[in-house]
Amino acid sequence: MSAKEALTLAEKSNLDLVKIAPGANPPVCKIMDYGKFRFEQAKREKEAKKNQKVMEIKEVRLSLNIDTGDFNTKVNHALRFLRDGNKVKVSIRFRGREMAHTELGIDVMQRFAEACSETGSVEKAAKLEGRSMLMFLVPKASK
Fold it and tell me: What fold characterizes domain 57-139?
C-alpha cells in the first residue's frame, strides 16, 4: 500500500508508522507503538548486559631463577584468578645475560602451566617478545 494510506491507518489506530527496512524496494514499514518498542528493546539490552561476564586479564610475573616457595605462591595466585573466571598473563622478564638462556624460561613456563592445568588451560603458549616471555592461561569451562 502507499505511504499515505499506511500513515492514515496508523493515525486511526493511534500508533506509529515505523520503517523496518528503509533500503528495500519498496521500503518495509510496520504499524506499532514506537515508545513501547524502544522501552522493551532497552529492557532486553539491560538484561543481556546483566548476564554478561566481563573477563579481566590478571598478570603474574615470574623470574628466571625463581625458588620453589615463591613459585608455589605465584601458582596459588594464578589459580585463584582462574577460579574467579579471569585470564592470567604469565610473564618472565630477562635481564642482562639471562637473554642467552631463554630455554630456561620456557622450562619455568611449562612447569607453571602444568601446575595450573587442573583449573586452567594454555590459550597462548610461551613466546619470547623482546626481553620478556609471555604466556596466557584461561579458565577451563565449568560444567
Answer: Translation Initiation Factor IF3 (3.30.110)
